[in-house]
Amino acid sequence: MHIVTTIAGSDSGGGAGIQADLKTFQELDVFGTSVITALTAQNTQGVMDVLPIEQAFINKQFHALLEDFPISAIKTGMLFSSDIIRTIALAMTNLTIPLIVDPVMIAKGGETLLQQEAVEALRNNLLPLATIVTPNIPEAETLTARKIETVSDIRLAAQSLLQLGVQCVIIKGGHLANKDFAVDYVFFKNGKSFSMQTSRIATKNTHGTGCTFSAALTAFIGRQMPIEQAIVEAKKFIQLAITHNLSIGHGNGPTNHFAYQKFKESCEVTIGETQ
Ligand SMILES: Nc1ncnc2c1ncn2[C@@H]1O[C@H](COP(=O)(O)OP(=O)(O)O)[C@@H](O)[C@H]1O
Ligand SMILES: Cc1ncc(COP(=O)(O)O)c(N)n1
């Protein structure tokens, strides 16, 4: 059994954060463990409050796992403050476990999940340790201090993130103004790149899409799948989870983690260039 870890915030509403990650891990046959960085009082309508966990206790959770389990992949989600980021970065130094960083910044409702002062720590302390970073467009803009409107802007932003030492950058196009397709762009340190296109699903139930995508990626990497195949399978997982989304709650409902195992054979991802 492969063991993977999510270092993220708790979403009491169950659609994003630690809860989305563990549900995704379970569906993909890996044993999920967690380091909780913050509690959120949250539902499909928004985040009502955030309670960050003390640095020392975050450290204890992480070391409890590292001392006991042969962890095969780690992902980070909501990290909230520069202190929390530095704690995680310090504990990750000298580990050779693949690290997937989902640079979560703002909830769908606009609430802050990463303090403004923490962006520098994310760039300078954590990204150099990352195997893969998965920003959406606004996150990539914040991390690179560049406006992103075209595919050429996406390529420049990815190059600037690769220069920090990340092995692979996936810029997710969920926020691009394309009503027909959801296209993500993948860039590797060795210069290789490709795009992944699926049909865009017209739904408001996209709570937790970024968390679920990066959790699926972490599970496949943890299962030792080759990195390019893991990225495409994670795109299938999120496409099916959005296609079969759950209309629960009064706001933006969550995605459906059960869909991949039922429908994966029928899901098409079109691979293209990044021009
Ligand atoms: N309406 C949609 N239909 C299909 N795929 C989508 C849709 N919205 C987002 N995605 C996909 O979900 C994943 C998460 O993207 P995104 O929503 O940009 O992340 P985040 O939740 O971090 O903002 C990406 O693979 C993106 O292409
Ligand atoms: C605890 C927590 N972590 C992350 C998100 C972001 O969710 P999304 O994946 O929709 O960007 C969230 N709303 N809450």
TrEMBL record:
InterPro entries: HMP/HMP-P_kinase_dom, PM/HMP-P_kinase-1, Ribokinase-like. CDD domains: HMPP_kinase. Residues 11-256 form the Pyridoxamine kinase/Phosphomethylpyrimidine kinase domain. Its EC number is 2.7.1.49, 2.7.4.7. Pathway: Cofactor biosynthesis; thiamine diphosphate biosynthesis; 4-amino-2-methyl-5-diphosphomethylpyrimidine from 5-amino-1-(5-phospho-D-ribosyl)imidazole: step 2/3; Cofactor biosynthesis; thiamine diphosphate biosynthesis; 4-amino-2-methyl-5-diphosphomethylpyrimidine from 5-amino-1-(5-phospho-D-ribosyl)imidazole: step 3/3. It catalyses: 4-amino-2-methyl-5-(phosphooxymethyl)pyrimidine + ATP = 4-amino-2-methyl-5-(diphosphooxymethyl)pyrimidine + ADP; 4-amino-5-hydroxymethyl-2-methylpyrimidine + ATP = 4-amino-2-methyl-5-(phosphooxymethyl)pyrimidine + ADP + H(+). It comes from the Bacteria. Signal peptide: none annotated. GO terms for molecular function: ATP binding; hydroxymethylpyrimidine kinase activity; phosphomethylpyrimidine kinase activity. Keywords: ATP-binding, Kinase, Nucleotide-binding, Thiamine biosynthesis, Transferase. Transmembrane segments: none annotated. Coiled coil: none annotated. One of its GO terms (cellular component) is cytosol. The keyword Mitochondrion does not apply. Pfam families: Phos_pyr_kin (PF08543). GO terms for biological process: thiamine biosynthetic process. Belongs to the ThiD family. This is Hydroxymethylpyrimidine/phosphomethylpyrimidine kinase. It comes from Lysinibacillus mangiferihumi.
